[in-house]
Amino acid sequence: MNVTTCGIDLAKNLFQVHGVDRRGKAVVKKQLRRDQVAEFFANMPPCLIGMEACSGAHHWARQLTALGHTVKLMAPKFVKPYVKSNKNDAADAEAICEAVARPNMRFVPVKNVEQQAALSLHRARQGFIKARTAQANQIRGLLAEFGLIVPQGIKYLSRRVPELIEDATKELPGTFRLLVQRLLENLQYLDNQVTEIETQINAWHRSNPLSRKVAAIPGIGALTASALVAAVGDAKTFDNSRQFAAWLGLVPKQHSSGGKTVLLGMSKRGDCYLRTLLIHGARAMLSAFERTKKAAYDWVGKLAERRCPNIAIVALANKNARIAWALLANDREFRPGYAPAKAAA
Prior knowledge:
Elements: E1 5-9, E2 14-20, E3 26-33, H1 34-42, E4 48-52, H2 57-66, E5 70-74, H3 76-79, H4 89-100, H5 113-144, H6 154-166, H7 174-207, H8 209-215, H9 222-232, H10 241-247, E6 252-254, E7 263-266, H11 272-292, H12 298-306, H13 309-330, H14 341-344
Parallel strand pairs: 1-4, 4-5
Antiparallel strand pairs: 1-2, 2-3, 6-7
Helix pairs in contact: 5-7, 5-9, 6-7, 7-9, 8-9, 9-11, 10-13, 11-13, 12-13
């Protein structure tokens, strides 16, 4: 079997495989069960395998790489233009096989198990925070139905709501008081879960030298550094720092035509979670600059005065992302006030 390039359409149980030879002629069109995939590729000579970066893709990439194959992951939106006619598993596998052979295709770095575990902690924390916010809003809304208004902020719920439901002068039925007490207990449980997961993330951050290196950048803490290191994988997969910032969606969105350059707002491509962490860190840095007036960040203050604070915050987040790429790709340590030799000259 002279297969040189292969595309796999991943699924829960049934996997579709499409393989071509050196001339691009299809020689394999096969559907495999989950337990047949490893055995099938173990008996195949090493080849280039393409997959969409979806659920289970990193696991199968590691498995097939261990068998001697070269595995590359692609974003599904880059594969879709290669789907011919109607969509089905066979057409998807053929499109993946064709897309992975394109010389200008962009690939997703394969993550190891440690990186996936760290990202799982971040996703779980994000889910608990979302559930905690929803629970807090529900408590606040139920109390508002009885004319009891609690200020915004979760901390006010734990302080004031117990006093409200214990106040005998309030016309609250006993069943409602018990209900609010139960909801408060659930809110406290969710808050404890967030705290425990953050403790695990901090422990992973302290044990990872790359994460500690990125956290040395002002405006990037343990949460942002650990998420960046776990999501990026190998920073050398990006050609330069601007490509890394564009991957995070921190560059202007371009809509140019006819030789006229038009730059809009943020592109907002990539991982919204990473971009949010970087922007929040930059916002904290801008607030600190307004208090301390450090000379190293004069350009941020001048930009905020000339344009808009949000524009300055995004610009600072972009700069921090570029610095993080330089540290990871070139194996350097962060040095405050560093200037390239050309710029210094």
